[in-house]
Amino acid sequence: MKKLAIALSAASTVLVATAALAHHSFSMFDPSKEIVVKGVVARWAYNSPHTFMMIKDEEGKLWAFEGAAPPALLARTPAISGDTFKNGQTVSVIVCPLRDGRNGGAAGLFFTDDGTVYNPSDAGCSANQRIKEWTDWLKAGHKSKAEAEAGK
Fold first, then answer.
1. How far apart are CA 64 and CA 81, in angstroms?
2. Got the DSSP string for 109-141?
3. 45-104 per-position pLDDT tens digit
């Protein structure tokens, strides 16, 4: 009986660890691409395990972005809370898009019209490591990292 309990305990541990690792996979996002999506906030969901923003872009398409968990966002500068973004607010999102082509991806940076730059990234997108570059690239009108680096 003791061996059965140990075996069940070990199997449970493996299953929980596997589920946790699967949850934290970012394989659905393409980290080699960083694109700009500008639009208005349609929904800002500040809940665990990930925050979630939906925006309607300038063409009327709805986009969905996943960000880090609320505790991580509260510790950033500037902090991001449940009241940071409002429906109808204009934002530019730097995103690593979904590999399957749907409108969405891992949020890398949020730029608001007042010039504030927020870092919602949860390791699915490394745009947060290029805040200065993205600030300059947006001012120059670039729509992607590839375009900016090519100097177009």
1. 18
2. EEEETTS-EE----SS-GGGGGHHHHHHHHHTT
3. 999 899 999 999 999 999 999 999 999 999 999 999 999 999 999 999 999 999 999 999
Q: Decide if pLDDT at 5 tops 70.
A: no
118 in helix, strand or coil? strand
Give the separation between CA 66 and CA 50, rounded to whole angstroms: 6
CATH of domain 28-150: 2.40.50.140
- Distance between CA atoms of 47 and 98, rounded to whole angstroms? 21
Q: What span, in angstroms and rounded, lies between the C-alpha atoms of 17 and 79?
A: 30
**Distance (Å, rounded) from C-alpha 82 to C-alpha 34?**
25
> What CA–CA distance (Å, rounded) separates 50 from 118?
16
Q: What is the pLDDT of residue 144?
A: 96
C-alpha distances out from residue 133 to 18, 28, 68, 139, Å: 37, 25, 22, 10
Domain coordinates in residue numbering, the chain = 28-150
Half-sphere exposure of 111 toward its Cβ, with a 13 Å CA cutoff? 22
3-state class of 148 per DSSP? helix
- Beta-sheet pairing, 104-112 with 62-66: parallel
In this prediction, residue 24 carries a pLDDT of: 60
| Residue that is written with structure tokens 């639009």 in the block | 39
